[in-house]
């Protein structure tokens, strides 16, 4: 049985949005299979950084974020003070965003959707279901 909701990693949103992305079709299929998309706040920040980093203008970057924010399936998940404190257990500062995403998945008790092999491994080690 497919999950009804999942916590989304940034790469799922990127791949679904950009038609020339290598995993575009899989990302779209993943999103379309879910009734609810739980997006951690840090993912929206990462998405904006990504858009600006690839050279999208401010208007296009805003449009990208708004495309997801206005979707009825989206539930933006804020990070609590506890999440921020718990996320600091990481050894590599580059893992901080992933830790925040994992904490949301644990709190919500739902799978994580990601194409990032490192994040998939961490989720698996913590008993978090993974899609696709």
Offer a few descriptive terms:
single chain, 132 residues, alpha/beta, Rossmann fold, globular
- Overall, the morphology is globular
Query: What are the low-pLDDT stretches, counting only 5+ consecutive residues below 50?
Result: none
CATH homologous superfamily - what is it?
5'-nuclease
Number of strands: 5
SSE ordering: EHHEHHEHHEHE
Helix content: 40-55%
Tell me the strand percentage band. 5-15%
Radius of gyration: 14 Å
Assigned CATH class: Alpha Beta
The CATH topology label is: Rossmann fold
Overall domain count: 1
Question: In this structure, how is the largest beta sheet organized?
Answer: 5 strands, parallel
Strand order of the largest sheet: 3-2-1-4-5
CATH second-level architecture: 3-Layer(aba) Sandwich
Structural class: alpha/beta
How far apart are the termini?
Answer: 13 Å
Average pLDDT rating: 91
Write structural notes for this entry.
- 54% of the residues lie in helices and 13% in strands.
- The model has no long low-confidence stretch (mean pLDDT 91).
- It has helices at residues 10-17, 24-32, 41-53, 58-69, 81-87, 96-108, 117-125; strands at 5-8, 36-40, 74-77, 112-113, 130-131.
- The chain is of the alpha/beta class and 132 residues long.
- It has a five-stranded parallel beta sheet.
- It has seven helices and five strands, in the order E-H-H-E-H-H-E-H-H-E-H-E.
- Helix 7 links the parallel strand 4 and strand 5 (130-131).
- The longest helix has 13 residues, at 41-53.
- Helix 3 (41-53) runs antiparallel to helix 4 (58-69) and helix 5 packs across helix 6 (96-108).
- The chain has a single domain (5-126), classed as Rossmann fold (3-Layer(aba) Sandwich).
